[in-house]
């Protein structure tokens, strides 16, 4: 453990996770320099370290999207109000949250323009124009952009008036293909969790009450935070012909019949940064899974004025960099203790301390952030073993999150049992009679239906809340 | 030449470049599927092929920015009106073009919010908060985003109400370092032209009249279009202490004195797509420089139903892809003539025709888009020679553009000579007495001061326009 005095000083300034989780979260966002508040209330600044996490996610997903034949596009920021009102369910869902441009520096606009809260409508309008034959299908577009939703209460990354996201929008000639796309994208999100962010998502379908405005079906990936609350971390929607009918997206099929097309949309956002923080972080700050970490390794010279320390540090930096590892050589004039503390706050997965005493034995000290353990390592082995070490850290972090999930996923057969399990934190699975039960549960316990798991085996014949016949098995949790 | 009937049919539908350059440009933008118009007037849709050009530019610049220690960030879309008014010159320059959010779906806002037309103000406000010591400097941030400026007349990529760009904003502890940054970024833009887009930019400083609102000095890269008009393609600004004083960006220097910091900003936008089109395009459509081309090579099977054609095409596709070349195998059921025409319209640098007759001689036909020449090539040599061929195409396209620039860059010693040279198209260099002459020239000829070249040798002692003593040598042109 590296608790020298300087270290303590910095660390003391974030609230303990178990004392006040909400305050811990906000402290960490600011102290790890992930974000800052801006002058426009509810809008945040994504600082370099926070934005780099998003760039990592972008790189991962762009690769997966391109492998699965998706293409990136960019559609306008603003939507004429009249166009926005073309799909009834959709406008009802989003109208209260829209920000509207009504005037320029010189004159008022003839029609109000809505800043996109999501772009289904723009894509539908464009697709109607460019699709006429089965040869034009499928169309599988994705957009990276920011969207604006006028949320009343905001929290960094979790809920804000503006957030960054990707929104995929696809059109298909058959229901089957569109349904497959919906689930394939859900699977890509699930893999983003396990393979990249070390987060085991729970997946399933949303209830009628919780589904997206205008969708026939919504699927989601849900992550379990350290405090036992769930975070919806990505969604994938199947639209059927709904938008196609409203926007007249028709194609001439191989049989020469004119048919309505089938659509999907799916997205993840900078909310994922919140998930990374709240799944992995600890009282010392952020703990980054190595694959998304902007710096995977930080090298800290001890007695950095000594030539042998400088040379060994630089050599190690060059070797690791050449090996494809993202390394930071922190050779500023700050003290080692200050650096230890800063890079722990920032969650850098591995710290290598290069000091004269270790060097005399041809060794360095290697500190792993996730378990805060230190060990000596032969200098000649560091470079060759680093990729394995990073993989091991990823696996250990994923296992830890999986254990947390397993230990906090319960089954309830009575409503009392449900309430008491819920208060322990985590998910509770219960078979209920549908929306009536869902509403009562939300009102009485604050828990919401996270997903209908793909396995819909009934736990009880009767709904413990309404005493009616149970029809659905729902995973409930309190959520962000 | 590949002018079969089908080919002609498609090609006829774009206006000839020399008949009506403006119409040719618009036709090409639409037919090459680079963009489409949207329902919000003045806002365009960046279609996959157009957006891919922007992604190529992003990849090139992100690499250069990171090599030069810049970091990406994201700042809010909206700026409170009161904050926007903090820097006088800046607000005067942008106020008439701003779009303002005044209301949400539920209620009017207490303060109007401006959609960023550029983000100097947001960066300055943030920098004031996070900079306090010389240790915090330099800060070198870049942002990829869209901006909104309420332009009256719009043209695809060249001028729109919304465009995509990058905006770099940096803070330095010394004037020297900030001035160096301004010029270093100009040089990166210049290299983006020569090394990536095959566009030879002219560089220099903007006149007082043409410089950016709030800047001490503005530098720009200017490209010469096929029709002889110039296109400002990127700018780099030196701000001195101007914003630092308005926003109180101070740092404690090594000598313990509190000092104002020095700033720069610089940007290029999707306007560059317009430059690519208008520098390289021809009557058959787009001609893409190979390094930015989304598909560098397209393989078109001839008699694609034959197994040997399918196998040879697939093998070539695999080999070229493995070699790091971006290849499209067009094995759709459209006719070869249709495909030739489409990929010429889209400017794919190299087309490989794989047909049974050539294959019998172990050959394929290789068509290069920039000169529209065909030649036979031994099948075994294609893969190994492709990188060289793409480099050669890049070099030939750059040379052609350089020749065009050389042949359309004139020197004028009298105002009559200036006018007659200007009517030939291209740049005219003249030594003038300053702003008075600049204003008269603009009014009387429509030409504007593009740059003050770095070589300020006077051509004449007297300004031919005002008959006053000449003080500046300016490169003039009519411009987009």
UniProtKB/TrEMBL annotation, chains A, B:
InterPro entries: aa-tRNA-synt_IIb, aa-tRNA-synth_II, aa-tRNA-synth_II/BPL/LPL, Anticodon-bd, Anticodon-bd_dom_sf, Pro-tRNA-ligase_IIa, Pro-tRNA-ligase_IIa_arc-type, Pro-tRNA_ligase_II_C
One biological process term in Gene Ontology: prolyl-tRNA aminoacylation
Keywords carried by this UniProt record: Aminoacyl-tRNA synthetase, ATP-binding, Cytoplasm, Ligase, Nucleotide-binding, Protein biosynthesis
Native species: Alteracholeplasma palmae (strain ATCC 49389 / J233) (Acholeplasma palmae)
Lineage start: Bacteria, Bacillati, Mycoplasmatota, Mollicutes, Acholeplasmatales
Span of domain Aminoacyl-transfer RNA synthetases class-II family profile: 46-289
Family label: Belongs to the class-II aminoacyl-tRNA synthetase family. ProS type 3 subfamily.
Presence of the UniProt keyword Protein biosynthesis in the record: yes
Cited NCBIfam families: proS_fam_I
Domain of life: Bacteria
The protein, known as: Proline--tRNA ligase
Subunit composition and interactions: Homodimer.
